[in-house]
Amino acid sequence: MYRKNAWKNYDEAERARLDAFAADYRRFLDGAKTEREAAEAAEAIAVAAGFRDLDALIGSGAALKPGDRVYRKWMNKCFLAFVIGAESLEKGMRILGAHIDSPRLDVKQNPVFEDEGFAYLDTHYYGGIRKYQWLALPLALHGVIVKKDGGVVKLAVGEAEDDPVFCISDLLPHLSQEQQGKTVAKFVDGEALNLLIGSAPAAKDGSAEDDEEKKPVKAAALAILKERYGVEEEDFISAELEIVPAGRARDMGFDRSMILGYGHDDRVCAYPSLRAVADFEGTPRATLCAVLTDKEEIGSEGATGMNSSYFENTVAELAALLGLPGSVGVRRALQNSRMLSSDVSAGFDPAFAGVFEKKNAAMLNLGVCFNKYTGSRGKSGSSDANAEYVAAVRRIMDDAGVAWQTSELGKVDAGGGGTIAWLCARYAMNVIDCGVPVLSMHAPWEVISKADLWEAYKAYAAFLEKA
Predict the structure, then answer these.
(1) Structure pTM?
(2) Which CATH superfamily is domain 6-102+262-466 in?
(3) On the CB side of 204, how many CA atoms lie within 13 Å of its CA?
């Protein structure tokens, strides 16, 4: 089946809207390099669009009515936005669900050490990374340190023009004969991903302890942390610090048709999902929902992952404020919902054509892509949307003039992956994956097409209105 390049569809006015949306997305991406930052940025978008804090309404016992706009930020790592519809919640919601965590390196709880005159932070990688890609890059340190008294120190070091950056050193090619004989998986060990943070020793204080015992470079780094942020070494125990590529997302190509940035997976779907709900005007027929969740890259586990009950609990709170009694009402609301699992797909790359089945691959510039199923091998770990739902979604997209395509994540048995779709399908709701093709997925810097981003926003908006 032939799909036309989406760029051919745009007149001058639509191209201007596309460019403005892409610029807004780039700014969002720059300020949302962690799930906490993404949730905070989402809250700012929602508040500006007139959404109220659901938790404040729960505390006051205020009732909700059609047209109301509410949001909930869960544990500072997830974000949900709702526009209350004219129909009873029991008839189901129209849900856009994306994740806002991305592959990265996490700082361990006892991380600071010195080795031969260098100070380091010890790390543990998060999600499916190719470890060698993180060597010899400028890296930034983002996150929070929560002190015993409850005080929170926010860090984002490495992004401002005059900030220092950090790196993980690599081996020079002149001495890498043994290393180059290793497989990619073994090229660098996970325990060797140590972040270099300093090399200058602390000034001597005249004590009897020698430099070897005092570890003066480590001491100097810790002194800087204490002076600038009031942080002690023990405070790392209750910290969540993430190491991410330093620098801004950039337009890519002479034609500026693409964006190179960190965290497209899956913020390139999270941003248009939230914007589609926030931009909706008036009172919808069914209640609208955008859920931006955490922990997808490590299996959606934990209290902020989609495998927890926070989403169901939030729907129950919403139902209570709408006067919907009993747990059966919540179950009906979930089961009768329709959802797009807004997640990325692997964009076809001619440089690695052998792992793709071309006629079922996601192509950049052909628009938003639908994955009927994901998983691996014999569709393991997949929800596999039913044909009736796929047909309904096809009709909505075509009627709205959305450029769209279908795709699979590579050849059968070449590998595979999953999304949050199967977790939402447990509620017996209809759900299908729908997102943006990405080149170099899970690399420190990923590539997307601005046209695909724009078509995703159009698709999500059409789904909310017509599904």
Answers:
(1) 0.95
(2) Zn peptidases (3.40.630.10)
(3) 8
